[in-house]
Design brief:
With 134 residues, the protein is α+β, with helices and mostly antiparallel strands. The protein has one domain (3-107): GIY-YIG endonuclease (3-Layer(aba) Sandwich). It is built from 5 helices and 4 strands; from the N terminus they run αβαββαβαα. It has helices at 3-11, 28-31, 65-70, 88-101, 104-107; strands at residues 23-24, 40-47, 53-61, 79-84. A 4-stranded antiparallel beta sheet has the order 1-4-2-3. The structure holds zinc ion (ZN).
C-alpha cells in the first residue's frame, strides 16, 4: 500500500474535524497560551504541494495537550493541528474517529488503536471496530 497517496486522499477530510489553520511544529510553545491542564486532540503531518494538511499521526491528551505535543520530534512532521475537548471521553471518542477516518494503523504512523482513558470503561464509538477495549 502507498501510505503517502492514501494520506493525501484521506487528509483532505481533516479540515472538517480540526480548526484551521495548521501550525508549524516549531510554534507549539507559542500556540499554547491556555492553562496547562488542558484536554484535547491533535494531528501531526505535512503540507503537500497543493497546500493541504496531510495527517500522519493523531493523538490526544487527557491532562496536558501542550506537554503531550512537546514529546513529538520535529524531524518527523512539520505541522500540527489541535482542538480542545471538554472531557477525556470527548477527546477519546474524537481520537477514535480520527484514527479510523484517516486509515488506522495501516495508513497512519499510529501503531495501535487509541487507548481508553485511565479508569474508564469507554468503548470506541466507531461502528464495526473490534478494538479489545471496545
Ligand atoms: Zn475503534
Amino acid at each position: 500500500m502507498d501510505k503517502m497517496r492514501d494520506r493525501t486522499r484521506l487528509g483532505r477530510m481533516l479540515t472538517r474535524d480540526f480548526n484551521p489553520p495548521y501550525l508549524s511544529l516549531g510554534m507549539r510553545d507559542e500556540a499554547f497560551s491556555f492553562p496547562k491542564e488542558t484536554i484535547g486532540n491533535y494531528a501531526l503531518g505535512e503540507i503537500d504541494n497543493a497546500g493541504d494538511f496531510i495527517v500522519g499521526y493523531v493523538g490526544r491528551s487527557d491532562t496536558n495537550l501542550r506537554e503531550r505535543l512537546m514529546t513529538h520530534h520535529e524531524d518527523r512532521y512539520s505541522h500540527f493541528k489541535f482542538s480542545y475537548a471538554k472531557s477525556p471521553q470527548e477527546a477519546f471518542e474524537k481520537e477514535c474517529r480520527n484514527f479510523h477516518d484517516f486509515g488506522g494503523a495501516e495508513v497512519l504512523d499510529n501503531d495501535i488503536h487509541p487507548a481508553v482513558p485511565a479508569g474508564t470503561k469507554l468503548s470506541c464509538p466507531v461502528p464495526g471496530c473490534e478494538h479489545p477495549n471496545g
